[in-house]
Write a structure and sequence with these properties.
- The chain is α/β, with parallel strands linked by helices and 206 residues long.
- The protein has 2 domains: 7-16 and 91-201, HAD superfamily/HAD-like (Rossmann fold), CATH 3.40.50; 19-87.
- It has 11 helices and 7 strands.
- The strands form 2 sheets. The protein has a 5-stranded parallel β-sheet, sandwiched between helices. Strands 2-3 form a two-stranded antiparallel ribbon.
- Helix 7 (120-126) links the parallel strand 4 and strand 5 (135-138).
- It starts with 6 loop residues before the first strand and ends in a 5-residue tail after the last helix.
- The relative contact order is 0.19.
Length: 206
């Protein structure tokens, strides 16, 4: 290993906090998985939500979907009205890891997240440890999102990061491929234990 890691970049949803729209809609549909699956694959889809992560307003997003599915207006509005119910909570093992890395003083710790700008303040209330990063780039605030190279470059420039000395942890493989293309060392997150082992393999000390 001819590089020295001095920077760790975390994704948030799926790595440090467990977020799934299914958690909310299972309550709404009384555990009917068929209805949950249909609604999230047909109405409030991942692609639709991703546009809010890229800077589209929630109001505009709701108007588009309600025009398309007027009979489901109430269910569509619940997506962001009850957005906080889409979290099961922090992924505790990874939060402990994040805090240990931070406490070691050996690394700068940043977050690069696809997140609606309008929901970021609530995220900080729900998960106070989000305040502990040395810096955060929120896609909705920047109006660009992973895996676009522009948002990685913005993070690199904003915090004077040397990509070859940085590790980026994300549960989305597409985002890891984009990071690797910019010479950032990507780790495709799959489980707390595998992540811990990966960091030890790369000789991180914390």
């Amino acid at each position: 290993m001819n590089y020295k890691i001095d920077t760790i970049i975390f994704d948030l949803g799926g790595v440090l906090v467990d977020w799934k729209p299914e958690y909310l809609y299972r309550k709404i549909f009384n555990g009917n998985e068929k209805k949950v699956k249909w609604f999230l694959e047909t109405v409030c889809t991942n692609a639709w939500n991703a546009e809010q992560d890229g800077g589209r307003t929630i109001e505009e997003a709701e108007n588009i979907k309600i025009a398309e599915f007027p009979e489901h207006e109430d269910l569509i509005r619940l997506f962001y009205k009850q957005w906080h119910q889409m979290f099961s909570g922090p992924i505790e093992e990874n939060v402990a890891l994040f805090k240990a890395l931070k406490a070691s003083g050996n690394y700068k710790i940043y977050a690069l997240t696809n997140w609606s700008a309008e929901k970021w303040d609530m995220a900080l209330e729900l998960f106070p440890f989000f305040h502990y990063f040395d810096g955060v780039v929120v896609s909705g605030q920047e109006k660009m999102r992973k895996p676009s190279p522009e948002i990685y470059n913005l993070l690199i420039d904003k915090f004077a990061i040397n990509p070859e000395n940085a590790i980026f942890i994300d549960d989305n493989e597409e985002n890891i491929i984009a990071a690797n293309a910019l010479k950032i060392h990507g780790i495709h997150y799959k489980s707390p234990l595998k992540l811990l082992n990966e960091l030890h393999t790369r000789k991180l000390t914390f």
